[in-house]
């Protein structure tokens, strides 16, 4: 747990090699995997209590096969600013963490919507 927290606090370029140079480009598999893994750990500690460990929903809506996840701006804005009963996480998560969580939920539980960059998260602020 301490290692995951330490990794989440690293600058983006330390977590996702080459991320600064990839704006607008499809990421390498290595970059995608790093984002996905950071997203999984960040989701577990910040989101699973409401959305369920497997995205099945509980206090929050199900993320399984959720078509709303197709829209990057909807996902990033919701994580950062909150929506309805969901609290905002913009003050506690970095752009890298927001992007990683978005990448994770957009590519888990039957969702196949692709990568979200830290620049996408920054644009939602």
Automatic annotation (TrEMBL):
GO terms for molecular function: electron transfer activity; heme binding; iron ion binding. Its cofactor is heme c. The keyword Metal-binding applies. Residues 34-109 form the Cytochrome c domain. Gene3D superfamilies: Cytochrome c-like domain. Pfam families: Cytochrome_CBB3. Keywords: Electron transport, Heme, Iron, Metal-binding, Respiratory chain, Transport. SUPFAM superfamilies: Cytochrome c (SSF46626). It comes from the Bacteria. InterPro entries: Cyt_c-like_dom, Cyt_c-like_dom_sf, Cyt_C_IC, Cytochrome_c-type_DH. This is Cytochrome c domain-containing protein.
